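= Protein in question =
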Amino acid sequence: METARLLEACAFPPAGTAVALAVSGGPDSVGLALLALEAGLAATLHHVDHHARPESRVDAAFVRALGARLGTDVVVHDVSVPPGANFEARARAARRGALPAGALTGHTMDDLAETVLLNALRGTGLDGLSPMVGDATKPLLGVRRAALAAYVAGRGVGVRHDPTNADPRYRRNRVRHEVLPLLDAVAERDVVPLLARLARLAAAERRWLDELAGADRGRALVEVEVGELRAWPRARLARWLRGCLTRVDELGEAHPPSEAEVDRAIAVVEGLVVATELSGGRRLSRRARHLALEERSTTLADHG
């Protein structure tokens, strides 16, 4: 795909804008760097070295050399992520903490489709069906991964490949290499654009619902009397409870309540039960005319 057509599919800020780019050295992030410069952005490349693989230093050296070739500044962030449980989540948290706020990433339309499917497999609603959409830090959601890789190869720029991207122990890799090809075969067409369209439609409806519920979002759990909550339509009550009961762990990961937890919370509102237990060791109860949420500090063991 020619550069002009790729740029049309991107959502970059205006030319001349100073941006930080998250560049791992893989084809997606290298493509991000090349296209950002083509778009006239004043880019600085940021690479996070987790020191998790023996070749991580080679990746960092590659990004430094790429910056020199492109005439851009490069910042390498050294972080330490000890091996063990929840390594991927801890690595994401370390990466977020190291990168500048608003750093652009190379997530493509294929990443969007994979995330929609992963969220659907976990169980989700409109929010999970519309990940990344409208996120200014992800300007390549209109670009296909294969087209981006072909563009990078056509520019004669080498890339680094992370072997963990082919490891079937990670669910995303199985969705990428097994589930999506099977869906293509069953549908007899490329389903990634269909999943991306679903995400965009869900995002539009989510924004509309958020506008309708704008006043609700500003009301804390303890502020609204149970009598008022009982008069709300169930969809409104469920959406408000989902926001109030979403917890953020010590890694900065958000954990919305499950549908079953929301149903149990609604049972508390309706007076069918006095209290219910929630994930993270929390307890939702009704006290006088209001709801009360008791929490304790959570650990990684609480949420796997």
The chain is about 50% helix and 10% strand. The longest helix spans residues 192-212. The two ends are 42 Å apart (CA to CA). Confidence is low (pLDDT under 50) at residues 298-304.
